[in-house]
Design brief:
With 507 residues, the chain is α+β, with helices and mostly antiparallel strands. It has helices at 3-7, 12-32, 57-62, 64-69, 102-107, 115-123, 125-129, 131-136, 138-146, 151-170, 184-201, 211-231, 239-246, 249-274, 284-290, 300-330, 336-348, 356-360, 363-376, 409-412, 415-418, 457-474, and strands at residues 84-89, 92-97, 113-114, 178-181, 292-293, 296-297, 380-386, 390-391, 397-398, 403-407, 475-479, 488-490, 493-495, 501-505. The protein binds protoporphyrin IX containing FE.
């Protein structure tokens, strides 16, 4: 998950109004506590000079790439500070580490470099969901254990739902007729919300046709973002009441409870009545019902929280990357005929039917998606928190309490890592290389790395490629400018473009 997924859901007005508060609070935090006080005693990473009190916050918010550019040359090699340095962002010490330390990042255990603590700190998991979920990380545990085993079944559900969701907005077009969609991100978020609901709760479940529940799946993240930004402003102990009074998180959680409690109760009852004859659905709800804690079944409340946490980490991230991919194709018309030829050739081998097996053969589409992930990644990606001083293999020690980000440009824009011309978009960069989009490594860190690498990446890649396959075959689509519009840098992250896309029915 990246900051992009969070910020994309806020309007600019919302971002800047909360951002102003965050900014002020960061300054206050800095003035009451000297942030880098214990770094003298270590061989600590160099601290990049910033403005008095606010440090590097302003630069990072307004143009993160420029800030990184002070430390990285055009080819993204660190020139002034090396690829390990510390910034003051929002009054907090943030250490950026690059390619030279990627092995340290991957190998260091969670008791020193914690993903959960960083996520808790940043995403306000405890304040949003309560400590039971944040102690257990049910959503991660179950996703890791079961998600990738059921891909064929999930693909079937997802293909059906995504086709229908795309038709909702574009299905009324006659062959040759055009329609401009202004807010592509909002459109894609709706499509992915529906597919995610079908995967997590089962396509046949009443939840998948419940307008309020689908609205919650689609919009929950937007409210969580407010909580995250409030978490940068107000003291920790006030966050639960701020969430209650200033966000719709309680309302969304209530909708989820109202929709899912009866489903959980019914499944438990059927299992009790039918015993082994009960044919268990394959979805998150059932995995959680079958799970246990200290020998006891999980409470319905915890199951709902786990599901909403999964919604939180998955829907916006997938919708954002689908939106990027759509702009990457729409803005580069020269590649469409090759993508389309592949679609036709593969589907001809599958009786014209899109299936998981057919998707697996669409190597050009997958190579294109992997390249889209590479070029659209934020410069600072994936985080950890140091629970104790963290010694790097180069001898530097990152103090306890620092948030650590990986400098993705040191890998993704590095010719030694990704091959020649890293600054250009080459959709066939990994074609015939046996490197699918889901294979993580230094040349593909969009899904993170090490033991926390995204367990939902197979689903994400599948959903994105299903949507692209359907759109490519049914529609011609292009941007108004005729080029790939630039991403919008806001608050240290790259938001998807805002340009409309014009769809014209092909068949
Ligand atoms: C294109 C879409 C997605 C992207 C780019 C993405 C990216 C990421 C990243 C970067 C992480 C952190 C990894 C690290 O820091 O090493 C992560 C974690 C996670 N992702 Fe995704 N993700 C996506 C979609 C999904 C989907 C669809 C699901 C579930 C169906 C999912 C479930 C999770 C979970 C549960 C974690 C936490 C893992 C843990 O606690 O160890 N993600 N994701």
């Amino acid at each position: 998950m990246s900051l992009t997924s969070i910020l994309t859901n806020l309007s600019h007005e919302e971002i800047f109004s909360v951002g102003r508060w965050a900014f002020g609070a960061g300054a206050l935090a800095y003035s009451t506590k000297f942030l880098f006080k214990d770094e003298d005693s270590y061989d600590a990473p160099p601290v990049v000079p910033g403005y008095p009190v606010i440090g590097n916050t302003l630069q990072f918010m307004s143009d993160p790439q420029k800030l990184m550019g002070q430390s990285l040359d055009k080819a993204c090699y660190c020139v002034d500070y090396g690829d390990v340095f510390t910034l003051n962002i929002g009054g907090r010490p943030v250490t950026m580490v690059g390619l030279s330390c990627v092995d340290d990042l991957v190998k260091t255990k969670d008791n020193v470099l914690s993903f959960n603590e960083a996520a808790d700190d940043f995403f306000q998991i405890k304040a949003i969901f309560g400590s039971e979920l944040s102690d257990d990380y049910l959503h991660s545990r179950l996703a890791r254990a079961s998600m990738s085993k059921s891909l064929n079944e999930f693909a079937e559900r997802s293909i059906h739902v995504i086709e229908a969701a795309l038709d909702e907005r574009l299905g009324d077009l006659e062959v040759g007729e055009e329609k401009s969609i202004d807010d592509i991100m909002e459109f894609m978020q709706r499509v992915i919300a529906k597919s995610s609901a079908a995967i997590f709760v089962g396509e046949a479940s009443p939840a998948c046709n419940d307008v309020d529940f689908l609205d919650t799946v689609e919009n929950f993240i937007g409210e969580c973002i407010k909580a995250i930004l409030f978490g940068r402003v107000f003291p920790k102990w006030t966050i639960p009441s701020v969430i209650n009074s200033a966000t719709s998180i309680p309302k969304h959680l209530e909708v989820a409870r109202k929709t899912l409690f009866p489903i959980i109760a019914e499944r438990r009852q059927m299992a009790a009545e039918l015993g082994d004859a009960f044919v268990k659905p394959n979805d998150f709800i059932q995995w959680a019902i079958d799970d246990e804690k200290n020998g006891e079944p999980l409470s319905s409340e915890l199951i709902v929280q786990g599901l909403m946490a999964l919604v939180f980490v998955s829907v916006a991230t997938t919708a954002i990357n689908l939106t990027h991919m759509l702009y990457d194709v729409a803005g580069r018309q020269q590649h469409i005929s090759e993508l389309l030829s592949e679609q036709e050739a593969v589907l001809a081998q599958h009786d014209g039917k899109l299936t998981k097996q057919a998707l697996d053969k669409m190597k050009m589409l997958d190579s294109f998606f992997r390249e889209s992930l590479r070029v659209n990644l934020d410069s600072a990606h994936t985080f950890r928190k140091t629970l104790e001083p963290w010694t790097l293999s180069n001898g530097m020690v990152v103090p306890k309490g620092h948030t650590v980000y990986f400098l993705s440009d040191t890998a993704h824009l590095n010719a030694n890592v990704v091959g020649e011309a890293p600054e250009s978009f080459n959709p066939w960069r990994t074609l015939n290389t046996n490197k699918p989009s889901t294979r993580v490594g230094t040349d593909n860190i969009a899904f993170g790395f090490g033991r926390h690498a995204c367990p939902g990446r197979f689903i994400a890649s599948m959903e994105i490629e299903i949507a692209m396959s359907v759109l490519l075959r049914k529609f011609e689509f292009r941007t108004i400018s005729g080029t790939r519009p630039a991403n919008r840098p806001v608050l240290g992250t790259n938001l998807t473009p805002a340009e409309p896309i014009i769809f014209k029915r092909r068949v």
